[in-house]
Amino acid sequence: MPENINKTDIFKFVALRPPVPVNKRDLETNFIKDNRKPEESPVGKLVSTFERSDGDKIPGKISDFIQDNKYYIDFPESAGDYRLSKIYEEAKSISKDSFNLESIKEKISGSINDSIASFLEKEESKQLLNNIWDRYYAFYILSKTENQNLEILTKGLRVFHLLDLINQSRINNISDFQRAITAQPLIASLFTDLPKPTVKVEKPEEKKPDPEKLREYNKLWNDFITTHRAIEELRKLKFENKLVSETQDAPKSDKKRGNDITGKITFAKSISVIDQRSFAKLHPATVSILKEYAIDKDNFQVSEPATELQQSLDSLYLSMSNIEDVEFINVMPVEARSIAGLAYLENKIKGLAGIQYKPYIPPTNVRASIKPLGIGELKVVKQKLKNYTAGEVAHIENVLRGEYKERKHRVLDRTEEIFTVSSETSEETTKDTQSTERFELKKESEKTIEEQMSVQAGVTVSGSYGVVTFGAHGEFAYSTSSQESNKNSSNFAREVIDRSVSKIQKRTKEERTVKKLHEVEEINTHGVDNKEKPDHAVGIYRWVDKYYDAQIYNYGKRMMFEFIIPEPAAFYEYAQTHKPKKDIKPPKVLSSTLTHKNITEFNYQDFIRDYNIQGITPPPPYYKTASTVLSSDASIQNGTSLSKSTKELIIPEGYSLTSLSFSLSTIYENNPQFKLSIGSNDMGWAVITDNDARRRWDFQAGAVNYIDGIIPVSLNCYDINSFFVNVTVGCVRSAAKYEQWQIQTFEKIMNAYKALQMEYEEKVAAQEVQQGIAITGVNPRINREIEKVELKKQCIKLLMDTYLFGSFNAMKDNGSNPPDFDIFDAMDEGKTIQFFEQAFEWENLTYLFYPYFWSRRSQWMHKSSIYDNDPLFTKFLQAGSARVVIPVYPAYNDAVMYFLENNGAIWKGGEPPRLNDPLYISLADELRDETDDLGNATPEGTPWEVVLPTTLVYLQNDSNLPTF
User: Fold this and answer.
1) By the number of CB atoms within 10 A of the CB, which of 242, 583, 600, 945 ranks highest?
2) Is residue 50 part of a domain?
3) Closest CA to 583 of 764, 839, 842, 737
4) Angle formed at CA 104 by CA 99 and CA 107, multiple of 5 degrees
5) Helix (H, G, I), strand (E, B), or coil: what is residue 628?
6) Domain ends where: 336, 355, 374?
7) How far is CA 711 from its chain centroid?
8) What is the pLDDT of residue 357?
9) Residues 189, 283: one domain?
10) Residues lower than pLDDT 50 in the chain
11) Beta bridge partners of 699
12) What is the C-alpha separation between 392 and 636, in angstroms, rounded?
């Protein structure tokens, strides 16, 4: 069989396992360790003095320490000693072919003018090594805030490390030599677990408010509060009535006697007088407002200033409602928040200004708990064709001696265009001219993986890696993790191949059945002539089977991270329900807490303007008055009795009586008797008597008890020549009357809002109809991208810490000018963006969705009932949590590990050191020699044979039945 048959990929998968602990020899070869205790070094003593609150002071203290001790980052070259650099460059140039340990020793001895053993024993050399470590520690700490290149210091440590290994005879071959010269320094946790600097979140640039405008806003708020308070206080004032009377002589003509006589005219008036104790409780600002109306406690009228104050309050509120500056709300006094009706104005202005994002700063560093999940090995199952072998009997053709047997085949070529657009063609396939498909095993393997993984609710198979398999991950399994991973990989690969072969075998049987159903129309004649032969003729046809060798190939290692993301679709769902429609603006949203109580005398016009409401009536006035008049129709003769009454004094509906006043005047000659009665219980009355030159007035008007309806007014008099009586009552609006207006207004507001909302929804629906046929769901490929982007965002958030995530603002708004970015912010933010986008293989992100009950309980009903046409996207929408596994690019292994070791610091130069921690050392040791060389795969395990049936048939040479 030809040897140049190519191996074909069947499928790919990633075997995930924990890192294998590094053995002692590799640890001593691949890593460099300071033999001193960290706290005994000069830098260690300094770090030991740091307090947890010194996070912001550390860069300054380290800089001062470096300057005071005259540390240079290019030491020992800065001191004129180039020996170590020379040895390092020569060592790096040694290749596998030129490696000769004795020759290397001679060159090193020539460079240091001494033997290696003698050089290492000298105190001068030991002090030189310690000095290099001290500077390495100092500049390493400083590198967290300033760019530092530790290359020269690292070279010095590596040369001392190489010399020490050569001196101990631990360098035996080129591999040991190269690992020693590329060893990584180990940093103690004393230098990495430093106090964290105070997180300073830069707020978005805000324009400082104009002082003149702030003074204007403050004055507007003060005038509104003062006016509103004055109105409320005036409505609570208490009054009492006072009687003023006067009697004068009045000439009167006596028609009977024909001369003039002297009569009397009496005038009496009751006036409302402010209660002094009630007036004393008024706010000084209210008293000052009343003075503007020339009103004081001795000259008080409530209705006129109250009406004008209400008009002033409406004017002030109109000015406030035209403001769209959020600073106006920021200077809102506390007292104003208790005034009913201002909440709507506050929410409206805040809505116009937009919501400012305020990042949450966690008290602890979340990132510190993130550790690598393990090592992922990309493995590919390849197949190589070995041979074709005759298999089971497919058909036996028997022809008796002396017999001629002829078989005619009729082949029908039928096209059923009624069922399909394309034509269906059946071609003749004879058993001696069979063909087979070359890559059927690969196709069936991929199909098997797809079907197997689809059961696991959202496992994504990446284009480069395929499916991820998980091996043992626990401390007890570390020693055998590689073997266990290989065993699991082999089992998984064999299982997939076996299932695929079974599917192909089943498919082959189906094809054979279908062939028998072909209707023969075209006649092909085959004849076997055995007439003159001595024996029977027997032809045995056999199925042909393919034999393959399957082999697992390892294409390299990746460091893997795992994250658990809560409710991965939460933001996506929110965005879908809040996205605006083109050229269609929804009505302003009414607060869910809005009730009729929030509708006031001064803010109802806001609703009229915002929702284009018609038919709203102004609120009923707070004060109303009613009056009636009683008078004599003509002159009354002396000694005559007269009584009059009226029911025309009516309190308006929805109002209650709060004050009563009257005025009257009488003319008489002799001894009059006059009584005025107001109300059914004489709530107001007056009596005039003038007998024997003793005139007396009795009077009462006050306790009105908030009655309503009709108030009767009656008088009874004797010996009165003429009179008139004017009765006036003051009324205030009842709470029920005001609430009725609020309810009616609220109903009209809600009807208008619903009408606008319905109009908006109709426009949205019309726009969607204009777009063409409504297609539910999204292309599954787009759904996969949505899933990956949302999961990627949450993973980056966990890695970055919340304070920084979402705070990028290099792009600035320039008012009416086009937006432009700040070059310094762009450079600074670009480093962070570059690290996270390039360090992780986001295109090979894999994930698994967990059920809805891992979400908030309040979301259970929603998540369990949401569906999409795409079944996998349904899993995304319903997921209560998601498990995400991300590989790291091999070139970024050290940078990512440094990022985790050093509290989120991004390495800014040179080769980063390693934290002296078993987990990180194991990861670094396994990944140190790995590159992204997917072309140099190594076989793993032993190959196994795979038998694949075909549709080919083979006529064997003899008539002997096969034995298996």
Assistant:
1) 600
2) yes
3) 764
4) 140
5) strand
6) 355
7) 67
8) 43
9) no
10) 1, 199, 201-204, 354-363, 419-438, 472-479, 507-516, 692-696, 701-703, 772-775, 919-921, 923, 931-934
11) 686
12) 145
Q: What is the pLDDT of residue 433?
A: 39
CA atoms within 13 A on the CB side of 310: 17
Residues 313, 300 share a domain = yes
Same domain, 743 and 724: yes
In a domain, 443, yes or no: no
Residue with tokens 């937009």: 354
Amino acid of residue 612: N
Q: Which domain holds residue 808?
A: 562-585+779-894
Q: Is the domain of 668 the same as that of 631?
A: yes
Q: Reduce the DSSP state of residue 786 to 3 states and report it.
A: helix
Environment class of 766 (CB within 10 Å of its CB; exposed 0-12, middle 13-18, buried 19+): exposed
For residue 481, the model assigns a pLDDT of 59
* Cα–Cα distance measured from residue 752 to residue 746, given in angstroms and rounded to the nearest whole number: 10
Q: pLDDT value at position 579?
A: 67
Residue count of the chain: 964
Residues 156 and 295 in one domain: no
**In what helix (H) or strand (E) does residue 448 lie, and over which residues does it extend?**
helix 440-454
The secondary element (H helix, E strand) that includes residue 541 is: strand 537-566
DSSP code, position 630: E
What percentage of the chain carries pLDDT values higher than 90?
6
Based on the fold, state whether residues 619 and 764 are members of the same structural domain.
Answer: yes
pLDDT score for 445: 67
Residue 367's identity, in one-letter code, is R
pLDDT of residue 181: 86
pTM exceeding the 0.85 threshold for the entire prediction: no
> DSSP labels for 811-827?
EEEETTEEEEE-HHHHH
- Pairing, β 184-187 against β 31-32: parallel
The type of residue at 513 is T
Q: What is the pLDDT of residues 129-182, one digit of tens each?
A: 999 999 988 888 887 777 778 888 888 888 888 888 888 888 888 888 888 888
pLDDT of res. 448: 65
Cis before 586 (ω within 30) = no
**Rg (the chain; Cα; Å):** 51
Q: Is residue 919 part of a domain?
A: no
Asked if 43 and 133 touch (Cβ cutoff 8 Å), the reply is no
**Single residue among 332, 355, 378 that ends a domain in this structure:** 355
CB half-sphere exposure, 754, CA atoms < 13 A: 6
Give a yes or no: residue 449 inside a domain. no
How remote is the C-alpha of 92 from its chain's centroid? 50
Closest CA to 842 of 781, 792, 890, 900: 792
Euclidean distance between CA atoms 831 and 276, whole angstroms? 75
Q: What is the pLDDT of residue 508?
A: 47
Domain count, the chain: 4
Judged on CB neighbours under 10 Å (0-12, 13-18, 19+), 342 is: buried
SS3 423: coil
State phi, psi for 496 to the nearest 5 degrees. -65, -45
Residues 249 and 310 in one domain: no
Dig out the tokens for 760 from the structure: 């908006």
The contacts of residue 659 (CB under 8 Å, 6+ apart) are: 239, 241, 272, 704, 729, 730
Could you tell me the two tokens for 310?
A: 């209400």
Are residue 136 and residue 256 in the same domain, yes or no?
no
Does residue 502 contact residue 493 with C-beta atoms inside 8 Å?
A: no
